[in-house]
Amino acid sequence: MTDDPVEHHPEDQPALTPLGVPRVETPDPDVIAVGPEMAVAEADVRWTEGDEVIKGRSLWRDAWRRLLKNKLAVFGLVVVILITIASITGPWLIHKTLGFTPDYIPSNDVRLIKSFPPFTGPDGKFSWTHPMGTDNAGRDQFARVLQGGQISLFVGIISTLVSLLIGISYGAIAGYIGGRLDNLMMRLVDVLYSLPYVILIIVLLSMFRSQTPRGQLVLLFVALGAVSWLTMARIVRGQVLSLKNQEFVLAARATGVSTTRIIFRHLVPNTLGPVIVYATLTIPQVMLTEAFLSFLGFGVQAPLSSWGSLAADGAQNIAIYPWQLIFPGVTMALTLFSLNFLGDGLRDALDPQMR
Amino acid sequence: MSSTNRHLLEVNDLRTYFETEDGVVKAVDGISFLLKRGETLGIVGESGSGKSVTNLSIIRLVPNPPGKIVSGEIIFDGQDILLLRPEEVRKIRGCRIAMIFQDPMTSLNPFLKISKQLMEVTQLHLGHSKGQAYEHAIKMLETVGIPDARTRVDNYPHEFSGGMRQRVMIAMALSCKPELLIADEPTTALDVTIQAQILELIKKLKHETGTSVILITHDLGVVAGMTDHLIVMYAGKIFEQAKTTELFARPGNPYTKGLLRSVPDPTAEQGKLYQIPGAPPDVSHLQPGCPFAPRCERAEEICRREFPPFVELTRDHHSLCHFADEVFAASGGNLESTRA
C-alpha cells in the first residue's frame, strides 16, 4: 500500500549522503561499495518503468493490461458481455425473425398446451424454433430466459448502483469528518448489519406491496440497494480513514478547497479501486438474492420474468420437464461465475497498484 | 490589499495546544514575530519544536481535535485570521497564503492529472474558465522550469520524479500570486542537487513576484543563503530571533550555538561531528526552568529553577536565555568557532 519502493529510495537516501561522504575512511567498505551499485540498479528499473508509463499513461490503463493477462477474468468479461448483449437484443431479434414475444402463448386451447423439450417442434420432430423448449403454457423458453436475463442483470446493476451511491457517500462522509459523527454513523451500520436482511427485504416488499409488476420491480431495487450498501460504506470509510491524513489532503485544504470537494473529488476517486472490485462482486450477490426472492414469490411478478422466477416455475415440474429448470439455472450460474471471476481478476489488477 | 501596511504578517503570542491522553502538549507556546512584504523569514529547529504547527496555525489548518489555537493574534494584511469565518479563511488559503509541503511524493493527489490539480486552484480563486485555467497551468509549469509543459500537464503525478513534483507543487502554490508563501521543509525529501535547484527556484520566483516567504527547515545550510530573518525554535518557544547574518555571526543563545556547531563541514579535517547531547524535551511535561537546561553546556542552577527572560541584545536580535548577554559577547569575540 505504500509508495513504490523503486521510486522512493532515491529520494530518501541522498539526505544521508552529505553526512556519509566525509566518513570514507571508516572501516566499513561494504556499505560504500554496495551503495552506488544499488543506485545504478534502481535507476535502471526506474528507466524501464518510466518508458512503460509513458506508453500506458494512466493507472487505469495499467490495471487494464494486468486484467487482460488473467485468462479467467477475460473469460468472465467475455461471457458477461455476451450474455448482456444477448439479453438486451435477444427477445427483440426473436420477435423479428420468428415472430413471437417471450409471453406469446400459441393457443388458447388448453388441450394443445404442452411443454416441448429443447429443439422440438409441436409435431415432436427436430426444430430450431425452440432451442430451450417451451414452458407449461407453450411460451418459448429461450426468449423467456433472455428476457429474464434482462431483468436479472437490470436488478443486479441498478441495485448495485443504489448501494454504491449510498455506500460511497455515507462511508466517505463518516470517514472524513470522523469523531462523534463517524461513531454514530458506523453504529447505525452495525445495527443494520445485525438485522437479517432477507427477512428485512421480505417485510419491506410485503408491506409496500405494489399492485403492478413494474412497481414491484422498483420496490425490489430499492429494497436490495438499501440493504447492500453497508459493506460498501465500511470499505469506503476504511479507505478514506487511511487517505485523509495523507499530505495531498492537507495540500488541498491549504489551497482552499472545500470539504465537500475534498471528499468527492480528491478522496472518492482514490477509493475507486476497492470499490469497483466490491461492486463487481455485489452484482452477482444481489442477483442471487433477487433470484431467491423471486423463487419465494416475493420478487419479480408474472408476466415479467427473471431467472429466479423462471427457476421457480421450472422447479415445480422438475420431474416431467427438467429443461424448464435447467436452462434458467445454468444461465444464471454461468453469469454469476463469470461475474465472480471478473471481480477476482479486477481485484488482482487494481490492488497492487493502489498508487 | 493595503500597501500602506508595512507588515504583511504579524503573529502575536500565538499558542497552539494539543489535548492528548498524556496531557496538554504545548506545541506552540507564545510565539510572536513580524514579516514584512517581500521578506523571507526562516524558522529552524529540531523535529517537534513547533515549526510546522506554527505555520499550520497561520492558515488555521491545525487538526482539531486534538489541536487548538488557545490564544494569540495572526494579523495578515490587517485582518486577524483567527477571527475570520471558515469560508473567509478558505478564500485566503491557496490564494493569498500558499503552502508547499515537505514530501512531494505524497502531496499531489495520485489519481488526478497534474492539469486538474493546477486548474483547481485558479478556477477556485481567480474564477478562471476551464480553458483559461488550463493555459495558466501550462504557463505556471513553464515558470517553474518543467520542460515540455504542454504535454506534461496531462500526466499523472507518478510520472514525475520527486524534484519535478516539488516544482509542480511550487507551480500550484504560486498560481494565484500569493502574498505569502509558506514552505514547510520543501527540500527535506529531495536529493542534494535537486535541493539546490528547488531553493534557487524559490529564490528566483520570490524575487520576480515579490512574495514574502516563510521557510521552515531543520537544515541551517538551507536558510543561510535564503532568508533575511531567522527564528530558532525549541520546545514551542522562540529561542533566538535575529537577522540571518547576525545570527550566524553572533549567536546569542547556547542552543543556537550548539545548532551551528553541529552543521557538518566538508572542508574540515575528519573528526567527530559535534552534537547537542540528549533529545528535545517532552512538551507535555515541561519542567519549570528553561526547557533546554538539561542539554545545555552553559546551564547553571537558575536555568533549572526559573524560566529565562527574552533578552533584547540589539534592536533586531532577541534571545531567550538567562545568560544571553554573556553568550552574545562571547560569540562576538570568537567568529571562528561559529563558521559564519
Contiguous runs where pLDDT drops below 50 for at least 5 residues of chain B: 333-340
What do the pLDDT scores of chain A average to?
A: 73
Largest sheet of chain A: none
Mean pLDDT of chain B, rounded to whole units? 83
Oligomer: heterodimer
Termini separation of chain B comes to 38 Å
Instruction: Provide a count of the helices of chain A.
Output: 13
Name the shape of chain B in a single word. Answer: globular
In spatial order, strands of the major sheet of chain B run 6-7-8-3-9-10-12-11
Question: What characterizes the major β-sheet of chain B?
Answer: 8 strands, mixed
Shape of chain A: elongated
Describe the structure in your own words.
The complex is a heterodimer of chains A (355) and B (340). By secondary structure, chain A is an all-alpha fold. Chain A contains 13 helices and no strands. Residues 1-56 of chain A have low confidence and may be disordered. In chain B, helix 6 (162-174) runs parallel beside helix 7. The model of chain B is unreliable at 333-340 (pLDDT under 50). In chain B, strand 11 (310-314) and strand 12 form a beta hairpin. Chain B has helices spanning 51-58, 86-92, 114-125, 130-143, 149-152, 162-174, 192-209, 220-224, 244-249, 254-261, 301-305, 324-333, and strands spanning 7-20, 23-36, 40-44, 67-76, 79-80, 97-100, 180-184, 212-217, 229-234, 237-243, 310-314, 317-320. Chain B contains 12 helices and 12 strands. The A-B interface holds A 3-4, 7-8, 10-12, 14-15, 17-19, 21-23, 25, 50, 53-54, 57-59, 179, 246-248, 250-258, 265-266, 269-270, 272, 355 and B 59, 61, 65, 90-95, 98-99, 101-103, 105-112, 120-121, 124-125, 155-156, 158-159, 162, 169, 172-173, 188-192, 264, 266, 270, 273.
